[in-house]
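My main concern about presentation is that the manuscript never shows what a single data entry looks like. In essence, backbone conformation is discretised, so a fold becomes a row of integers matching the chain in length. An entry of this sort, consisting of the sequence and the corresponding backbone structure tokens, reads as follows:
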Amino acid sequence: MHRLPTGVCIFILFLAACQSQPDATQTTGETNSLVDSGPSSRLLIAAASDLRFALPELNDAFNKLHPTVTLETIFGASGSLVAQLENGLPADVFLCADERYPQKLIQAGLAAPQDYFRYARGQLALCMPANSALATQSDGISLLTQSSIGRLAIANPRMAPYGQAAMALLENLNLAEDYRNRLLLADNVMQAFQFAESGNADAAIVSKSLALAAEKATRWFEIPEEFYPPIIQGGVILKKTSARQAAQQWRDFLLSPAGQAVLSRYGYTSPDSTSSSSP
């Protein structure tokens, strides 16, 4: 049996070792195939209650593009959330139902003017329990003039923009005094919706986004925008965020065509749109 020279054996072993190593270029290519392979981060989004159904879908769509970002949300009335933020709530992004509330945070030094944005225009809806005898489509807004609405739920106008819009609606229809003793004030617009859904109120003036998302549980119709001031919804990135890049990515997605398409499915329109409803 012939023995190979020592040098040849060493060379063969070297070639075998090289072939057994993974291809560095191929591995790198597989890593880059991810949409977002950046460092992981966490975002806490403080959001107005009208976004209770829309925001989870927005977050799911965002995570498909940015899987390394963990999203958490807290919902409440816009005014209540501002108070919590002023008292140290560690949120990264604030979304509210009135563009004036982010301005308060900017004035308080908790956010910078360049981090403010407008993301949607909301609408009001009159919502009733699913088994209500009130004829929503045939009677329209004239339902509010009927004495059969013994309890009308709205979000507390002192804390919730949708409650403020609801009060403006009643005032414009000269019905504010009629409902003075029939109003059921909720902590936020989601709770007002739940009052109607459960039958604890005969009707509720809520956001169209909530009525659309749970239309099988209630009966509702959209209130023409001519009867109340525009509901322009704004947001801001907080100065204290420790994940500014992720916060900016989330804001950019919200304002992108994909993000706006999600909001559109829940009845929101562009903040720059004009009213298209008719009385």
